[in-house]
Design a protein that fits this description.
Length: 238
């Protein structure tokens, strides 16, 4: 991927944040120490940034070069997922923090592979909020003992759960019952029922012996920013 393409992808990310009200050109100029005209010229494709300028913008916006790469290209070059056969899709089982925060799944982050029927996965309806196109849609994690107890009997120790990271909306998937979500709490996934009350996320366990938790939405943040995805499949160890 060429440096010019990386700069264009950075522009797209910055414009998305500006359109969402999370950033302004003036604010970015203040963060980087650049003149506002310099930032404006970059955003409007009138000039590029030096490598040092790119590094500064990435740093203040908490981005990395990986965020500027095409996820399909990353996965093609870095994934250890074997080719899919006609009936099954290979799903990466990853560590909890990887599922919570990393849009692409790199080679060294895959713990193992599970196979799920393509027909089953195609039936699952996505409900993305914000830009989730760059995120690998399905990942799996193994449930810890603490999570299994808080969601017992819906979850059991040793269970592997499939997370649809393109479903980060609070809209119910079915009328019959609430969604179960993986929620990003301090960089880790916790599994709970989720409700929104004002500027707070209410995280409810299934096991009533465990307390309800409250997460306050950060400034400029929405509920969807904290929802890693909907738990759409639970597999127990034989």
């Amino acid at each position: 991927m060429k440096f010019k393409t990386l700069q264009e992808n950075l522009r797209k990310i910055l414009w998305t944040r500006i359109d969402e009200g999370k950033l302004t050109g003036l604010r970015l100029a203040e963060q980087t120490g650049f003149q506002q005209a310099h930032i404006s010229n970059f955003l409007n494709r009138k000039r590029g940034l030096s490598t040092e300028g790119m590094d500064k913008v990435l740093s203040v916006q908490r981005l990395s070069v990986l965020d500027l790469l095409d996820p399909a290209e990353i996965n093609e070059r870095a994934s250890i997922l074997p080719p899919n056969d006609d009936m099954f899709e290979n799903i990466a089982v990853v560590a909890n923090p990887v599922a919570a925060a990393q849009s692409s799944i790199m080679r060294m982050k895959v713990k193992e592979i599970v196979k799920l029927k393509k027909r089953f996965l195609k039936k699952l309806r996505p409900q993305p909020e914000g830009d989730r196109k760059a995120w690998v849609r399905f990942v799996a994690i193994q449930v810890t003992d603490g999570e299994s107890l808080s969601m017992y009997p819906r979850l059991a120790a040793g269970a592997t759960i499939l997370i649809d990271r393109h479903y980060n909306s609070l809209k119910p998937y079915r009328k019959a019952g609430p969604n179960i979500y993986a929620v990003n709490k301090s960089g880790h996934c916790i599994v709970r029922y989720v409700e929104l009350a004002g500027r707070q996320l209410v995280l409810r366990p299934h096991n009533q012996a465990f307390p309800v938790e409250i997460m306050h939405l950060g400034e400029g943040k929405r509920a969807s920013d904290y929802l890693v995805g909907r738990v759409c499949h639970i597999a127990l160890e034989p």
